[in-house]
Amino acid sequence: MKYYSTRDTQKKAFDSAEVIKQGLASDGGLFIPESIPQLTREDILTISSMTYPERAATVLSKFLTDYTYDELLTDAKAAYSETSFPGGAAPLNKVNDSIYSLELWHGPTAAFKDMALQIMPRLLSRALVKTGESNTALILVATSGDTGKAALEGYKDIDRIKIMVFYPVDGVSKVQKLQMATQTGNNVNVYAIRGNFDDAQTGVKKIFSDKEAATKLLENKYILSSANSINWGRLVPQIVYYVSAYCDMLNAGDIEYGETVNVCVPTGNFGNIFAAYIAKLMGLPLAKLVCASNANNVLTDFLSTGTYDRNRKFHTTMSPSMDILISSNLERLLCFAAGEEKTAAYMAELNKNGKYTVDAATKATIDETFVGFCANEEETAATLKKFYSEQGYLADTHTSVALNCAEQYMTKYNDGKKMIVASTASPYKFAADVYKSITDTAANSDTEALDQLSALTDTEISYPLRNLTERKVNFDSVIDPDQMLDVVYKFM
User: Fold this and answer.
1) Does a structural domain hold residue 51?
2) Mapping DSSP to helix (H, G, I), strand (E, B) and coil, where does residue 7 land?
């Protein structure tokens, strides 16, 4: 399997190990596979009888063809071990007759990013060997809250790899900030920036495209790579859990093979829902993909009108991982729908004017699969309270956005299909907002809210978040976005 950039009309080919090592294409585009491997009925039924690590190795082997199946299985077993994912990875929880919650947050940082970032460092370590790389990989990460901690945890103390994380100083929850600030490891560094996630993400992308910086890093025996979902090695493991969820529904007798189901994903950078799209293209029987947004509803508007316009007010919400106005992985969908030449033109227009409008044929292609809905703060809180009081299901704020949008979809279209909702974080990661949504009363503090929510709901605090306030703060620096390259050099 070869890969090429979304902006390269010549389609220069790369192996998957090189793509994982490189992260972002040199022209600023994102890597996509030259073709989509298929899952037959027999494949899906066979995968249904497998453990999650076996499912992961099987799906990954179809994309990462310069890795052996045994290598992938070894890495998957290590990544999705009982130690990291007590009780198993990606369990499917039946909420009611129509909605199934795919809980992706049972890993070491209590967020769905663990599903990719526990295996990705292993894939990168192998990629350095496979490509004959002698330099140290410097991982740069922009995070809206969850990717940063998951990447730090996945890459800490890994040989020949260093990692730097940048997050918006006022754009993450107190719990998320504490998780990153108290990170341990001899190869990690964390900075808060004055600005929002888009400022952090733009800063990282600028560093990646800075040829002078690349030269200086190489002179010091470093190469750049990324752990954000712009890196294919981060995105491809996410395909696995949609395949796994469908298999679990088959095993439970809730569907018969070939019956299509819908998927609703709380969406910020568009990577998670794009992984579901790839699964559908592979032949997994998925129908509509519902893109759920919060008040930062740039994707809802795009899917409705065909115009992507980031020139709008930025909202800080109780679902901060979705507080994004530049959804990077949408570029991959555009390339599938419109081709490399149009995609490059759209991205140039976005960089210049902050907006673009796709042509009618491209929008029609996207409309075949995607539909967008959004939920404001009041709707998010009300939905969270409703599902806890009526269904006994405790969701975090991001999952609540998805639950609200899933219900909007089912009300509007009434297609009778079952809905898989991607549950992307533990309710304890946003305990203060969850507690207030249920009780209409503020918690004593963001950190005390964990104990208050546990007492209220008689549930256990997710294991990675216990005793969080007792850990030593190791990173408390705040910088401006234009200082990002300077601190990269300093860390180097």
Assistant:
1) no
2) coil
